[in-house]
Amino acid sequence: MKTLLITVIGFVSLLFAPVDTVLTRFSPPEGYRQVAVTPGSFGAYLQSLPLMPPGAHTHTYNGDIAATDVFTAAVVDMSVGHEDLQQCADAVMRLRGEYLYQQKRFEEIAFHFESGFRCDYIHYANGYRYSNGRWVLKGKKDYGYTTFMRYMNLVFAYAGTLSLDKELKKVKNPDDLQTGDVFIKGGSPGHCFIVMDVVENSRHKKLFLLAQSFMPAQNIQVLKYRSPWFSMDLKSDIWYGELIDKAYLKRFE
Q1: Is residue 72 within a helix (H) or strand (E), and if so which, with residue range?
Q2: Which of 35, 96, 233, 245 has the fewest Cβ atoms nearer than 10 Å?
Q3: Distance CA 96, CA 181 (A)
């Protein structure tokens, strides 16, 4: 009976344990304070994403330790799938899509393929399927999460940094850096990072956390290079670190 009671208490404690996020895992450096985000915004969603336990490694879709693991500060607790699909731009689109899906803003979930085709979730959820550059009605209406993930995998297969780079809006004033912004360069290959949190000091100097996926598809990892806090004023020798520059700073509309 005593063993059973201890087990139940342990289960309840685990059930109600606070979720570990970038806000709880990474304290602002000395002299810096959190830059507030709007409740319910994309930035607030990113800040609240659950992380795997400290020390977790970044794995590829097939279970191998990722080559980027050396730059891991934390791993976002989100599936990577079992195919080589959710790479760098795909991870950013996944996060944006998940946010809009949770908000039930279904009509806003849409991404362009590199061909220019606009792949919107509403068509897919209503039973349409992509075929040779157009929608063809083949199924029944289904707004469930499994169908949403099938839609996202379709996006991953046909979209990339080239298409996402064109969709995002350039941030004209880099001092306006916000959680949810994206450093991106379209190409084959291109690359991108997403800003997961922003802190600021009394002189308005900003530092930020970055996350990425990579090739082959891997867990979304919060990055570090000496420190998990990055700056546009300091060079970083992580792969594609040259993109952490105002010239590549963009955001979703």
Answers
A1: strand 72-75
A2: 233
A3: 11
User: Strand, helix or coil at 234?
Assistant: coil
Mean pLDDT estimate for the chain: 93
Instruction: Tell me how far CA of residue 15 lies from CA of 18, 19, 73, 75, 219, in angstroms.
Output: 9, 10, 25, 20, 24
Q: Among 78, 94, 74, 98, which Cα is nearest to 86's? A: 94
Tell me the three state secondary structure of residue 130.
Answer: strand
The 10 Å CB-count burial string (b at 16+, else e) for 159-171 is bbbbbbbebbeeb
Over residues 176-225, the pLDDT tens digits come to 999 999 999 999 889 999 999 999 999 999 999 999 999 999 999 999 99
Please report, for residues 17, 23, 97, 140, 213, the alpha-carbon distance to residue 87 in angstroms, rounded to integers and kept in the order given: 31, 25, 15, 29, 5
Question: At 179, is the secondary structure helix, strand, or coil?
Answer: coil
